[in-house]
Every structure is written in C-alpha cells, then in structure tokens.
Amino acid sequence: MAKRKSKRIYFGPTDLRNRRVTAYSSPRLIVEFEMNRRGIARIAVSQPLRDATRSLVVNHAMPYAISISPHGDTLEYVSSWRPAEGFTVIAGMRRASCKLINVSGHAAAVEWISPRGFGRGYAVLGRTLAHLNSTSPIALARAARAASRKPWNPDLHYRGAAGRFAKRPSP
C-alpha cells in the first residue's frame, strides 16, 4: 500500500525544509548548515521568546501608547491597555506573539473617529507601531549610516559643479 503524503498548507519564500547548504568553502575547510525545521518551530514557540515579546510590549509599546492616549476625566481609556499573549501562524509555522489591546468600550471610536466627528481619530495603535519601528535596532543603524554619509560636494566632481550633466570637454 502506498504511503500518502500529507498536504502542505503553504508554499512560499519562507518555506523551511530540512536541507543542507554549504555556507563557506575553502581548500581546507567546508562549512555546511543543515536546517532543522522542527528545531526552529520549537524555538518559535519557546518560553524565552514569549517572554521577550511580552517584555517588548509591556516595556516599550504600552508606555508610549499611554503617553499619547487622550486623557479624559475618568482615565478609563488610558488605564485599559493590556498585553494579550498568544500564537500566530506565519508561513505555515506557529509563532509566539503578544498584542497590545485596549479593552475599553470606546477604544474603536478613539482610534478611528476624531473628536469633531470627521477626519481621522487619534490612531494611537498606528502611531505606537510607527514609534516602535523607528526605534528598532535596524532603523537606528540605517539612520546612523545615512547620517555618517558625507553630503555630495559638486566642487569635487571631475566635471565641475554640473556633475554628470556637464558637457565633456572636447579632445
């Protein structure tokens, strides 16, 4: 009797199979990397990763969201921020996640409807996500690289101030 293959749910660029790839080779040394999907799946739902995601939400996202939240007389909206731990499935693999949610009854209205009744609301969650993205190590390294670049000096160009648009001198 033929063995039936299990149907894979997702085919895509992040599909991880157990495969061996040569990472480095030289005449004296060959370094190979063998992907272990089961091990990566175990790490993706591990307790240290769940603690790290919760720490990011509680220590970075929640204080910023509270600081930009509209403060009313009762402070109900400001005091209703909660971390919600769970799992999400990305590219067919279950991963640890932690969401920042507001459990007040008027959270959707604050998020999407402006106080005057037209236009955008406060967009607290969107602004919090933009803040987290701007303070990530990747964004900070990108900004540091951009700041370290010297501005273009047209006087140093070999064709003069007009740069590549200057006519070449005729021979």
Overall description:
It is built from 5 helices and 4 strands. It has 171 residues and is α+β, with helices and mostly antiparallel strands. It has a domain of 115 residues. The strands form 2 sheets. Strands 1-2 form a two-stranded antiparallel sheet. A hairpin with a 4-residue loop joins strand 1 and strand 2. The chain is flat. The mean pLDDT is 83.
What tags apply to this protein structure?
171 residues, alpha+beta, 4 strands, flat
Give a short overview.
This protein has 171 residues and is an alpha+beta fold. Helix content is 35%, strand content 18%.
Layout of helices and strands, plus pairs?
Blueprint: E1 20-25, E2 30-34, H1 37-44, H2 47-68, E3 81-90, E4 93-102, H3 107-112, H4 124-134, H5 137-148
Helix pairs in contact: 2-4
What percentage of amino acids are in beta strands? 15-25%
Distance between the termini: 82 Å
Structural class by sheet pairing and helices: alpha+beta
Helix content: 25-40%
Shape: flat
What's the mean pLDDT score?
83
Radius of gyration: 26 Å
